[in-house]
């Protein structure tokens, strides 16, 4: 019994990381008023390039940072379009998601010469902190916790956080007080995308150890749902992420556990995370309030 | 030697991106330590000029000198650094923040990542509030505070930045008479401290009372600057409009007819579930203006929303022309002849991002004249209608295809009034119909309400402007905490008696 609990707990924590990182990034970005629905694509591309960076440098940590760097670049692109050029917030995200499909389909054979799938060799993957027979604990788990708590603290206690929240609620008010609206919106957007990039690289060079075309499997969108669920609050996004991680992991567990998958078809469990997402979002919507200027460009005249 | 003005704007021209020429070479100068009034009709360019001075907008042409030194403001930050701060006509507050965080935003202390020193900020703010005798609660989200308090927060925000020049764009439009008096006390204190104040208002009485000099703008040009001591309201009105303005309304006596609207024992709840309207009964008759006076927040909003079908009725009945309309939806009420001029034009009256033409037919768009095959909208007729309204009501707009948000506040209000009366209604429910509207348009709107009454329509008027209710009403009620303290004829009471009734005290003598 205790081993099952430990195993489920470790598994949930492991599955939680990409969702929590992306949600936390999305919270910051939307708190500043910039909507980005391109996280799915960022996860995908960061998974691909993260693995590439890890293998060419011979260091899995370079792979993670490389993924974050890809996220940062995509965030700068999104920020340039939405914040500085006052463009629409949704369309660039759709663009990134579609672009990612192509980049990964083309990238896997181009980089590794294999079609559809690439297995990342173990020595290029992040080594666990603790290894037990029930599962392992990646160093990315405590790092994720640290990122969430620091982000939360900065958002609600510091001048930087106050300004980020102000430009997302009422940019005109911030502007009238001499706060550079564009700068904070841009920074928050880049931060959000960078965290997603880190989460994407985690998929390939840490948790799953593969690069496939479906490796993100909707986690970018689940992260957005989780952001809504959290009421745009990083610590609550951590809790929500754990719940999603639990179901995500459960489906993996059922699939690999013949005794149970005979009773419940694993396909059913596999759709659980998505069903949970829909139920939670449907239940929460209208009860939490997004930042007032979320998704709206700000122009002075 | 002539003293150097603290503010000197020279040859300011402003052309908006859509081509509107809002300012056509304005010279404007303000002396150190004075309260300088800025007057002008809706759309004259007052807000535009002040936004340029506060760094919100770049001028297309012209120069700005502060204490004799030329400056170029790229953003409000630059203006603040030069000691100039502005309180905007439409509030700029972060609604979910409390007053303290709204005020310190942008100058929270050192470093981006250090913890905000809330205690220190609180101490500094408390000191500022004590000096001015001007208190606001610091820890409540500002969205839960009444507008009068929000206004104070806006002012504190600017003063906290230690400005020398304070610009107030129509600060009194949303204040009750008592709040106006308190604001004026603060302005006088600030003047004693050596601050310079630029004060915009449409209320000539206020301008006469508080300012030292007045500059009048008309259609983007300066008409002149006068010493207030040498001016009269009539003179100022004439400078603004370019003709004589009748400041009193002509209202012939009239026998009211049958009741159009009957309200019986009406109970309505407010947003927080409290009883906002407590068992009101009254009637408004054909050919009568029934006014409701009272300090804002005593249930007037809820009463109006109930009558216009926007709020749930807990108990009681509303009868229109003998027909029970309790709980009927707004569209049905409009078809039965109810028109509504709502108190909050930007949220309820207009859709700011839509064009003048689209807004001009909101709620009328299903009428036959505006629809073609398959209920598609006949744009030619819609635009024709909008053009007619613009002409008839003298609305200043760049065109029928311009977004409504590019109209000045007063012209937005005129557009609503024009649209509503064009429905040819039986009952007009008018809530704060002249708020933020210039003297000439106020005269026009008030006369129009009287004209409707003369045409045997019923008018229900709610206004925080006591003068307005007194001037227009045939009968008036004073509302206090959800009930009528009394229903009187304006000519039979003194202002004092009404003042007492507005505080809930009924004079029994
Ligand atoms: N953002 C904008 N884009 C285009 N035109 C604008 C914009 N803002 C204002 N205008 C136009 O500029 C002119 C001056 O407007 P402004 O708001 O300065 O007037 P105002 O004197 O403050 O009027 P009010 O008393 O109604 O507030 C008006 O004709 C208005 O329609
Ligand atoms: Mg104005």
Can you describe what's shown?
The complex is a heterodimer of chains A (301) and B (509). Chain A has 13 helices and four strands. Chain A has a two-stranded antiparallel ribbon with strand order 1-4. A two-stranded antiparallel sheet of chain A has the order 2-3. The model of chain A has no long low-confidence stretch (mean pLDDT 92). Chain A has helices at 2-31, 39-57, 60-84, 91-112, 140-157, 159-169, 171-176, 181-207, 219-229, 234-255, 258-261, 266-270, 272-284; strands at residues 117-119, 130-132, 135-137, 210-212. The N and C termini of chain A lie far apart (64 Å). Chain A is mainly alpha-helical and 301 residues long. In chain A, helix 1 (2-31) packs across helix 9, helix 2 packs across helix 8 (181-207) and helix 10 (234-255) packs antiparallel against helix 13 (272-284). Chain B is α/β, with parallel strands linked by helices and 509 residues long. Chain B has two domains: 7-241, Rossmann fold, CATH 3.40.50.300; 259-502, Rossmann fold, CATH 3.40.50.300. In chain B, the strands form four sheets. Chain B has a six-stranded mixed sheet with strand order 6-7-8-3-9-10, with helices on both faces. A six-stranded mixed sheet of chain B has the order 16-17-18-13-19-20, sandwiched between helices. The mean pLDDT of chain B is 90. Classes of the chains: A mainly alpha (301), B alpha/beta (509). The interface between A and B is medium-sized, with 24 and 35 residues. Adenosine-5'-triphosphate (ATP) is lined by residues 16, 18, 20, 22, 40, 42-48, 89, 396, 406-410, 438 of chain B. The site of adenosine-5'-triphosphate has 20 residues of chain B, from helix 1 and helix 14.
């Amino acid at each position: 019994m205790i081993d099952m609990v430990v195993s489920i707990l470790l598994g949930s924590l492991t599955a939680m990381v990409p969702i929590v990182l992306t949600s936390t990034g999305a919270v910051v970005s939307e708190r500043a008023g910039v909507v980005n629905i391109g996280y799915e694509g960022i996860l995908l591309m960061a998974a691909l390039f993260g693995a590439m960076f890890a293998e060419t440098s011979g260091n899995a940590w370079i792979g993670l940072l490389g993924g974050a760097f890809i996220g940062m670049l995509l965030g700068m692109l999104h920020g340039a379009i939405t914040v500085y050029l006052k463009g629409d917030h949704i369309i660039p995200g759709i663009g990134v998601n579609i672009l990612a499909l192509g980049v990964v389909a083309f990238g896997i054979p181009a980089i590794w010469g294999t079609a559809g799938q690439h297995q990342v060799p173990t020595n290029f993957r992040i080594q666990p902190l603790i290894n037990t027979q029930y599962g392992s604990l990646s160093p990315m788990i405590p790092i994720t916790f640290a990122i969430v708590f620091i982000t939360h603290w900065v958002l609600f206690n510091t001048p930087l956080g106050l300004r980020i929240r102000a430009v997302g609620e009422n940019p005109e008010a911030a502007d009238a007080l001499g706060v550079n609206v564009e700068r904070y919106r841009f920074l928050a957007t880049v931060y959000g995308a960078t965290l997603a990039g880190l989460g994407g690289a985690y998929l390939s060079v840490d948790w799953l150890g593969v690069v496939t075309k479906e490796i993100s499997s909707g986690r970018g969108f689940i992260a957005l749902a989780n952001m809504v669920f959290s009421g745009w609050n990083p610590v609550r996004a951590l809790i929500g992420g754990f719940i999603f991680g639990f179901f995500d992991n459960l489906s993996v567990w059922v699939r690999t556990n013949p005794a149970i998958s005979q009773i419940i078809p694993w396909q059913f469990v596999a759709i659980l995370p998505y069903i949970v997402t829909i139920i939670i979002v449907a239940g929460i919507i209208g009860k939490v309030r997004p930042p007032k200027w979320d998704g709206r460009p700000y122009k002075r005249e | 030697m002539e003293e150097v003005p603290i503010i000197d704007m020279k040859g300011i021209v402003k052309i908006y991106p859509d081509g509107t020429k809002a300012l056509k070479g304005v010279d404007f100068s303000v002396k150190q330590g004075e309260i300088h009034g800025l007057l002008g009709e809706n759309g004259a360019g007052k807000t535009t000029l002040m936004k340029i001075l506060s760094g919100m907008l770049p001028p297309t042409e012209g120069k700005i000198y502060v204490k004799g030194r030329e400056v170029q403001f790229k953003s409000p930050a630059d203006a603040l650094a030069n000691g100039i701060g502005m309180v905007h006509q439409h509030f700029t507050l972060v609604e979910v923040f409390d007053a303290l965080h709204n005020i310190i935003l942008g100058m929270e202390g050192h470093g981006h990542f250090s913890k905000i020193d809330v205690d220190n900020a609180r101490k500094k703010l408390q000191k500022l509030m004590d000096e001015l005798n001007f208190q606001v609660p610091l820890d409540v989200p500002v969205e839960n505070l009444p507008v009068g308090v929000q206004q104070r927060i806006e002012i504190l925000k600017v003063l906290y930045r230690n400005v020398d020049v304070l610009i107030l764009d129509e600060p009194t439009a949303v204040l009750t008479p008592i709040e106006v008096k308190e604001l004026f006390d603060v302005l006088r204190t600030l003047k004693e401290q050596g601050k310079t104040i630029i004060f915009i208002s449409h209320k000539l009485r206020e301008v006469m009372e508080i300012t030292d000099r007045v500059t009048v703008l008309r259609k983007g040009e300066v008409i002149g600057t006068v010493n207030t001591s040498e001016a009269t309201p009539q003179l100022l009105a004439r400078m603004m409009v370019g003709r004589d303005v009748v400041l009193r309304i002509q209202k012939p006596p009239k026998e009211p007819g049958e009741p159009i609207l009957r309200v019986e024992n009406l109970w309505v709840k407010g947003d927080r579930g409290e009883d906002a309207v407590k068992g009101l009964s009254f009637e408004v008759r054909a050919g009568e203006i029934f006014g409701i006076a009272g300090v804002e927040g005593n249930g007037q909003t809820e009463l109006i929303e109930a009558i216009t079908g926007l709020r749930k009725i807990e108990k009681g009945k509303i009868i229109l022309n003998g027909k029970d309309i309790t709980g009927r939806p707004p569209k049905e009420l409009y078809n039965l002849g109810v028109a509504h001029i709502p108190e909050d034009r930007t949220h309820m009256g207009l859709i700011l991002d839509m064009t003048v033409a689209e807004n001009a037919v909101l709620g009328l768009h299903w009428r036959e004249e505006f629809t073609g095959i398959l209920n598609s909208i006949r744009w030619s007729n819609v635009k024709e209608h909008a053009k007619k309204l613009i002409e008839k009501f003298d609305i200043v707009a760049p065109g029928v295809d311009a977004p409504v948000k590019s109209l000045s506040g007063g012209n937005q209000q005129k557009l609503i009034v024009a649209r509503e009366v064009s429905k040819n209604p039986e009952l007009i429910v008018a809530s704060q119909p002249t708020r933020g509207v210039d003297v000439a348009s106020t005269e026009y709107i008030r006369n129009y309400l009287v004209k409707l009454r003369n045409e045997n329509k019923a008018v229900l008027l709610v206004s925080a402007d006591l003068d307005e209710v007194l001037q227009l009403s045939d009968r008036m009620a004073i509302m206090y905490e959800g009930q009528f303290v009394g229903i009187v004829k304006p000519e039979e009471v003194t202002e004092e008696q009404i003042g007492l009734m507005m505080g809930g005290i009924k004079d029994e003598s």
